[in-house]
Write a structure and sequence with these properties.
There is one protein chain. The chain is an alpha+beta fold. The protein folds into two domains: 12-147, Fructose-1,6-Bisphosphatase, Chain A, domain 1 (2-Layer Sandwich); 159-268, 3-Layer(aba) Sandwich (D-Maltodextrin-Binding Protein, domain 2). 31% of the residues lie in helices and 27% in strands. It is built from eight helices and 16 strands. The chain has helices spanning 12-28, 49-65, 97-102, 165-168, 173-176, 188-196, 211-223, 256-268, and strands at residues 37-40, 45-48, 70-73, 87-95, 108-115, 118-126, 131-136, 142-143, 146-147, 159-162, 179-181, 202-205, 209-210, 226-230, 244-245, 248-252. The strands form four sheets. Strands 3-4-5-6-7-8-9 form a seven-stranded mixed beta sheet, sandwiched between helices. Strand 5 (108-115) and strand 6 (118-126) form a beta hairpin. Helix 1 packs antiparallel against helix 2 (49-65). The chain is globular and about 55 Å long. The N and C termini lie far apart (47 Å). 44% of the residues are buried.
C-alpha cells in the first residue's frame, strides 16, 4: 500500500522520489554538454544519451525494488506483460527532451505508480530549476515540500492559458480576447505542474500525448484541486494497450467547465 512502511522497506512514494532525484542528477550531468542524439518515430522525436542514462537508472532502482510491478517507459521497448499487472511504473526519464537539448530549464523526470488504470503516486523533478513535485492519493500536492493549489481566479479578465495559436483561433472571439497565451513550455508534464501550482489557469493538450507524459502530472494536478480530462470531461485511464491520448484539457476545477465549453465551441464552429 502506498506510504506504508514495512520492516526497513521504503514506501512506494519514497522509492519513486529517490529514484527521480537520482535520475535527475544523472540527466543534469549531460545538460548543456551536447550529448549524443538519435532520432526515433521516423525522425520526429529526438532521444539523447541523457534520456537513456536516466532511464537505466530508473529501471535499475525501481524494477529491482518492486519486481512484481509492471513497467512502461518512453525509452524502453514496451512489454505487453504490463497489461496483466494491476500496478505499473509509468516513467519518462526526461520529459521535454527538445527543450533539454536546446538548453531550456523546462524539463523534468516524471515517475508515476499506476494501479488499476489511475495514478496513485507521482513525482516530477525539474533538476535545472531545483523543483520537486510530489503527490499521492488522499494527500496534498507538494512542491519542494510545501502544499500547492490551482489558481482560483474565477471571472477574471485574463486567463493564463498554455495552448497553440492554431487552437486558440477556434475559441469564441469574446473569450479569446481574455486569454493571455504563455510562451511554449517544452515539457508537457511541467506545463501541467504550472497549472497545479497556480501559474496557469489551464492548458490544452494536443492529440498524441502519452501515458508517460501525463500520469505523474495528472495526479499532482488532481491533488492540487484541478483535473486533466478528455474533451468529454472524463478522467484518463492509464496502462492500456494504447498509450496515446486524444486532445485533453488540464485546468483548475473552477475554470475547467469554461475551457471545455470553448473547446466544444471550437469543434462545433
Amino acid at each position: 500500500m502506498i506510504d506504508s512502511q514495512k520492516a526497513g522497506r521504503l514506501s512506494d512514494t519514497d522509492l519513486i522520489v529517490g529514484a527521480a532525484l537520482e535520475a535527475g542528477k544523472i540527466a543534469l550531468g549531460f545538460f548543456r554538454q551536447s550529448p549524443e542524439v538519435w532520432w526515433k518515430n521516423n525522425g520526429q522525436s529526438p532521444v539523447s544519451a541523457a534520456d537513456f542514462a536516466a532511464n537505466e537508472s530508473l529501471a535499475a532502482t525501481l524494477r529491482s525494488a518492486r519486481p512484481d510491478y509492471g513497467w512502461l517507459s518512453e525509452e524502453t521497448d514496451d512489454d505487453a506483460a504490463r497489461l496483466s499487472q494491476a500496478t505499473v511504473f509509468v516513467v519518462d526519464p526526461i520529459d521535454g527532451t527538445r527543450g533539454f537539448l536546446s538548453g531550456s530549464d523546462l524539463w523534468c523526470v516524471s515517475v508515476a505508480i499506476v494501479t488499476d488504470g489511475r495514478p496513485v503516486a507521482g513525482v516530477l523533478y525539474a533538476p535545472a530549476l531545483d523543483e520537486l513535485f510530489v503527490a499521492t492519493v488522499g494527500g496534498q500536492a507538494l512542491k519542494n515540500g510545501r502544499p500547492i493549489s490551482v489558481s482560483e481566479r474565477v471571472g477574471e479578465d485574463v486567463h493564463r492559458l498554455a495552448t497553440g495559436e492554431d487552437m486558440l483561433k477556434g475559441f469564441d472571439p469574446d473569450f479569446r480576447k481574455t486569454v493571455e497565451r504563455v510562451k511554449h513550455v517544452p515539457s508537457l508534464a511541467y506545463r501541467l505542474a504550472m497549472v497545479a501550482d497556480g501559474r496557469l489557469e489551464g492548458t490544452i493538450v494536443k492529440r498524441n500525448s502519452h501515458d508517460w507524459d501525463l500520469a505523474a502530472a495528472d495526479l499532482i494536478l488532481e491533488r492540487a484541486g484541478g483535473a486533466l480530462v478528455d474533451l468529454s470531461g472524463n478522467a484518463l485511464r492509464y496502462n492500456r494497450a494504447e498509450v496515446s491520448h486524444d486532445e485533453l484539457c488540464g485546468a483548475s476545477a473552477s475554470q475547467l467547465p469554461e475551457f471545455l465549453r470553448q473547446l466544444s465551441y471550437r469543434r462545433d464552429g
